[in-house]
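Case study.
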Amino acid sequence: MSKPFIACGIMSGTSRDGIDVAIVEIGGTYPHNRIRHIHSEDYHYPPSVRNLLMKEPEELAFQDVVGMRFMLGRLYGEKALKTLGNAGLKPADIDCIGSHGQTLVHLPGGVKIGWRTVPSTLQVGSGAVIAHVTGITTVSDFRSADIAVGGEGAPLVPVYDYVTLRSTKKSRIALNIGGIANLTAVPKGASPEDIVAFDTGPGNCMIDTAVDLLTGGEVNCDLNGEMAQRGEPDQEELRELLKHPYFRRKPPKSTGWEVFGRPFTRSVLEHMLAKGLSHSEIMRTLTEFTCESIAVAVRRHVAPLMDIDEIIVTGGGSRNPVIMEGLKARFPGSKVMTGEAVGIPSLTREACAFAYLGYLCLKRIPANIVSQSYGLAPAILGSIHPTP
Amino acid sequence: MSKPFIACGIMSGTSRDGIDVAIVEIGGTYPHNRIRHIHSEDYHYPPSVRNLLMKEPEELAFQDVVGMRFMLGRLYGEKALKTLGNAGLKPADIDCIGSHGQTLVHLPGGVKIGWRTVPSTLQVGSGAVIAHVTGITTVSDFRSADIAVGGEGAPLVPVYDYVTLRSTKKSRIALNIGGIANLTAVPKGASPEDIVAFDTGPGNCMIDTAVDLLTGGEVNCDLNGEMAQRGEPDQEELRELLKHPYFRRKPPKSTGWEVFGRPFTRSVLEHMLAKGLSHSEIMRTLTEFTCESIAVAVRRHVAPLMDIDEIIVTGGGSRNPVIMEGLKARFPGSKVMTGEAVGIPSLTREACAFAYLGYLCLKRIPANIVSQSYGLAPAILGSIHPTP
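After joint prediction, the assembly is written out as follows.
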C-alpha cells in the first residue's frame, strides 16, 4: 500500500474575518479517495489586516492590493506552520498545501474594460510566499482555471462533497450554512456529472447582520439561537421574504452578501420594527427564513432527482439549534446531522476541501465537476508553487 | 538520447508596447543545457490594450487590473498559438510555456500597507488562461518567489546568460540594451555564483524619448542612429550627465524609466536646447551617454573581476550602429558582437530566457542565481498551471 498523502488546506471566506487551516490524510485514488480529517484550527485576522480587508475594493489603493498578496501569503504560511506544530507534525510530513486565498473580486459575469467584458476573479495570498515560508509545495489560485474554460469559478467544493459523501446505498445532501447557504446533492451511485450544487440563499448573513444592527454592534451573532428561541416567527413576513426572486431561479445559481447582506437586511428590519415585532420575533422570523429557503430549494431542485436519505449540515449554521431543529422538522423522512457524524469538521470543511483540491491539482485531476456537468471543458484547478 | 524539450517564452517588457514570443529547443541537463533558438516573433499590443497599459497604476480602476489578468492571458495565449503555427509547430510539440506577464508594479523595496512595508511585485496575464487557450502547461509569476526569499525579484535572465555564454576559455559579457541597459558578466570557468549582473543605466529610453519630444511625437526612435550620426557629442553635457548618482552606486543595483524616463529626459533636453545644441548634436550626445555609461559600468564593476574577451549585445540598441561603433571604440581589446553571432536572437532574447525559465521551473531547478550569489535562499521561480 502506498504511503498516504497528507495535505493542508487554508481557507479565508467571504466574511473576511479570518483563516481556517485543516490537515487531512488522503488515501486511495480519485474518485475513490478516502479523506480523513487529522486536525484543524481557525484564526482571526489581526485587526490591522481585517480593517484593510473590510474596505471596498474601490477604496483600496492599487498598491495595497499588490502588497496584500505578499502580506497575506506570509500570514497564511505562518498559520499553517502553527497548525502543523499543534498537530505534532513537521513541514516534511506534509505533501502539499492548498490555499484558497482571500477573494477580493469574483465577477464571472465579467468586468468592463473599455469595450470588452472580461470574466474575472482574484484571490490574494501569494502561493510563492506560502511555499517559501513553509517549505511545502503550495497550490493556489483555484478559481481562475474554471473561469478560463467559461465556468463560474464556483462552486469548487462539490468534488470534495462528492468524494466524501458518495455512496451506492444513500442519497445525500451536503448543506453548508455559512453567510450564504449552499448545497451539493449526491444521489446514490452518482457519477461526478450527476451531482447538483448551488446556493440556496441566506445562511447566517441576515441573522448575524440583524443582531449586529439591533444591538448597535454590541453582539455579532445569535449564539446558540438564543434570541430566536424566545420568539415566534411572523408568518406574513416569512411569506413576503420567500417571494424574493432568487428563489424562483433554477440552478446553476449563486448569490452573495451583495444580495442578502447589510442593505437588504436593514430594509427588512425597518419593516418588521415598524410593524411592532419584538427583537426575538424578528430573529426567529429570519432564522426560519434561512430554514424555509433551504427547504424550498431542496423541494424544488433536489427532491425531483432523488430521495433524500441524509442531510449533512456544516458551517456556522450547524451550531444553531433553531436552524438544526427547523431543518429536522422540514425533512421528517431524512436524517439531518452535522458533519462530525460522518467525520467532516463542520466549521473547517472548506479548508479540508482546499487541501483535497491541492492534492487533485498535483495529481493532474480536473476538479471543476460542476462546470463539466454543464458541458464545459475539464480544468485542472490551481497553480503549483514548487519548493527546492 | 532523450527527446529534446521544446519551450515557448512570452515576454512583455517595461515599455509596455507589445509581446515577444520565442520558441527554443533545450537539450542536456542544467547547467550544461544547450539552448537552440527555433523561431520568434514580436507583436504590438492592440491600441485599446496599450492605452490601458499606459495609464499609471493609480489611474487604473482596481477591477481593470483584475480584468487585465484574464484579458492579457487570452492575448498571450493567442499570440503563442500564432507563433507556433508560423513555425510549423503544434501545441502538442511544445513542452511548456514560460510567460513573464506584464509588470504593473515592481517594488522590492516594499509598499506601505498601514504600518507594514511589504516587498511586492505584480505581473499580470493569467497563466491559467494561457494554459487553457493553448493547451500547454504554462509557468508564470516568476518574480514572486525571489521576492519571497528576500531578493529583488530581478534580474532573472542571468541564469539564461550563464548557461548560453559560459565557457572555459572566454570571459563574456551579455549586454542587453533595451529601454534600460543591463549586463551579465560571465567569467571563464564561472560557477553560477560567480556571475555579476546589474543595470548599467539608460539604454534606448532617453534616445527614444528625446526623438519623440523633438519631433512632437511624429517619430519614436532614432532609426539606425541616423540623427545621431549627423552630429557631434557635446563633451561638457556628456560629463554632466555622467555625474548622475546612479553611476557611483555599486552593484547589485537596478534602475528604470522612473529615473531615466520622460521627466529626466525632458529636463536634459531643455538644458541642451537652451544652450543652442542642434537636434543632431543632442541625439549624438544622448547616444554617447548610453555608450559611455555602459563603459563606465564595465570598467568599474566588471574589469576588476575578469578580462573581457567578448561583449554580446542584444536588445534594440544592438540595431543602432552609433551605439555598436561607440562600444567597439571603447573596448578595443574585446570582440563586440550582436547576439546573432552566438545564436541568440537579439530582439527576443528575453522571451528565449523566459522559455528557459519555464523549463527550469518544471525541472525544479532554483533559478534565482543572482540572489543566491548574495547569500539568499535558492528559489524555484514560477508557478505551474497544468493542463488536462
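Observations recorded in class. The first strand of chain B starts at residue 5 and ends at 11. Chain B touches chain A through 60 residues (CB under 8 Å). We will return to this complex in the next lecture.
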